[in-house]
Amino acid sequence: MTDRGPAPFPLHLLAPPDPAVLPLPHPARPADGVRLLRGAVYAVPDGSRPLAVDLWLPEDAAGPVPVVVFVHGGAWRTGLRDDLGPRFRHWRPGPFARLARAGFAVACPDYRLSGEAPHPAQTDDLAALLAWLRTRAAGLGLDAARPVLWGESAGGHLAALTALTQPAGTVAGCVTWYAPTDLTHLADDLPEGAYDTRDPATFEALLLGGAPAQRAGAARDASPVTRVTSQAPPFLLLHGADDVLVPARQSVRLAEALRAAGHQPDLRLVTGGNHLWVGLSDEDVENCYVRTVDFARRCTGAEGG
């Protein structure tokens, strides 16, 4: 008899478990009326770390609750999934607990940063998150069919890009705070000499996998303004009029593209506001948050909370 050696190893055993059936984290209760499932794995991209999401849920909801997906900023390079920025870190209860108390579920996901993978990995991750939410909706008590996406800075860019590239009717609305929206014209919106499209070390170049001047196709593909169609969801665009990092003209460009496609975006340029709402009073910062919650409520039909 011929010796055929040991039987081949069943390679399928090396595959990661399906996040759709993994056990969910044990809930914490960070505030009255709020459950927090911190660090549920929603995707395991090949060659990358597992991606997790925090879920802020209203306690004892009467039925499926609408979903807000918050996408963190950090220049696509860094950031924490549950951080809305320095103007909100002292809030007690925090902004996501407040949203849960208002009757929303809030999903705060990780995504692959530019040091891990270039565009479009980030929007691929957010699309995977939306699919995971739909899969887990019944067990979590979610109305995940049409979530509202919300992001700040780079997260606002990713929220907008995801909202505009999902199938029509699957996103109820999108909120962007001081977000870049047109990577092909960012240099035009900044003071002369402030931004070099040939520089491979800018945050945009690191996202695109090369300097925008050499990656013009990727820059267009990664620009929400180029992805607007007649099927776009409603948009709320908030931007500080005095933003020196991401000029307010970037939000104006997206509003103009949406209007050209037949939409009526709500564009608010906040007087005195710099990036991260630096320069605003506490009252003005809270007004930006309240306007965002009210928009999500209108988009989802959620009752006031």
From TrEMBL:
Keywords: Hydrolase. SUPFAM superfamilies: alpha/beta-Hydrolases. Residues 54-258 form the BD-FAE-like domain. InterPro entries: AB_hydrolase_fold (IPR029058), BD-FAE-like_dom (IPR049492), GDXG_lipolytic_enzyme (IPR050300). Pfam families: BD-FAE. The keyword Ion transport does not apply. It comes from the Bacteria. The keyword Hydrolase applies. This is BD-FAE-like domain-containing protein. It comes from Streptomyces glaucus.
